[in-house]
Amino acid sequence: MSKFDQAKMLMKMRKVQKELQKEIVRAEAGDGAVIVEVNGEMKIKNVTIDPDSVDLNDIGQLENWVEEAVKAAIAQSQKMAAEKMQPMMGGLGNLGM
Fold first, then answer.
1. 17 vs 45, higher pLDDT
2. From the centroid of its chain, how far is CA 12?
3. Kindly report the CA angle at 84 between 46 and 34, in degrees rounded to 5?
4. Which of 8, 11, 19, 70 shows a CA-CA span of 20 to 30 A to 29?
5. Greater confidence, 12 or 34?
6. Phi and psi torsions of 31, nearest 5°
């Protein structure tokens, strides 16, 4: 792979990374009691908790829902990022990384 091709590949990767910053995935738990939004870089952008769905006497359940929603959102984000990066992964072997 020529230096020019390597530079093109790196530019494409940077473009995809910028796109992933803007992409948002959403996961919920507890039938919508907890909603977590994560971008394509796996950064949490928003957490919403429906107060009508939460029993303050059972904070453990709320904690479980938050954990479940965060894990699901991150997994979706990872999958999305992998799908967007997949077309370029074949060319990376020639970059010497």
1. 45
2. 19
3. 20
4. 19
5. 34
6. 55, 40
Residue 27, CA distances (Å) to 17, 30, 40, 46, 84 in order = 21, 11, 13, 11, 19
* Residues shown for the chain: 97
Q: What is the pTM of this model?
A: 0.78
- Listed in sequence order, the DSSP H helices in the chain are 3-22, 59-92
| Three-class secondary structure of residue 35 per DSSP | strand
End-to-end CA distance of the chain: 13
Q: How far apart are CA 41 and CA 28, in angstroms?
A: 19
Inform me whether the pLDDT recorded for 97 exceeds 50. no
| pLDDT recorded at residue 72 | 97
How many Å apart are CA 47 and CA 24, to the nearest integer?
12
Domains of the chain listed by start with CATH number: 3-89 (3.30.1310.10)
- Angle made by CA atoms 74, 77, 79, in degrees to the nearest 5: 110
